[in-house]
């Protein structure tokens, strides 16, 4: 695999993992009553910000583990 395609695969998988994890956490937080876009800095909006951050990080880690598992196969 060329260096360019490896870097493209790495960047795209990281981006998809991060955004996917953040969106999943956003919807889970919203279902639990935390509103990311609430006015002010109440506990509901802070909880949603934390959830989205954790979800994005978790999605990124899942994407990296997936990429490492696929690299072992190649």
How would you characterize the overall build of this protein?
This protein has 74 residues and is mostly helical. The chain has one domain (10-73). The chain contains 2 helices and no strands. It has helices at 3-31, 43-73.
The helix-and-strand class reads mainly alpha
* SSE pattern, N- to C-terminal: HH
Main sheet makeup: none
Structure summary, number of beta strands: 0
Radius of gyration in whole Å, from Cα? 16 Å
Distance between the termini: 9 Å
Share in helix? over 70%
What is the mean pLDDT? 92
Looking at how many chains there are and whether they match, the oligomeric state comes to single chain
**Which segments are poorly predicted (pLDDT under 50) over 5 or more consecutive residues?**
none
How many domains, as an integer? 1
Beta-strand residue fraction: under 5%
- List the total number of helices: 2
**Outline type:** elongated
Describe the protein's topology:
Blueprint lengths: L2 H29 L11 H31 L1
């Amino acid at each position: 695999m060329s260096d360019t395609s490896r870097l493209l695969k790495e960047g795209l998988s990281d981006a998809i993992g991060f955004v996917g994890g953040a969106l999943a956490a956003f919807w889970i937080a919203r279902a639990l009553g935390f509103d990311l876009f609430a006015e002010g800095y109440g506990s509901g909006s802070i909880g949603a910000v934390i959830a989205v951050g954790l979800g994005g990080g978790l999605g990124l880690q899942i994407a990296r583990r997936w990429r490492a598992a696929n690299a072992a196969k190649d």
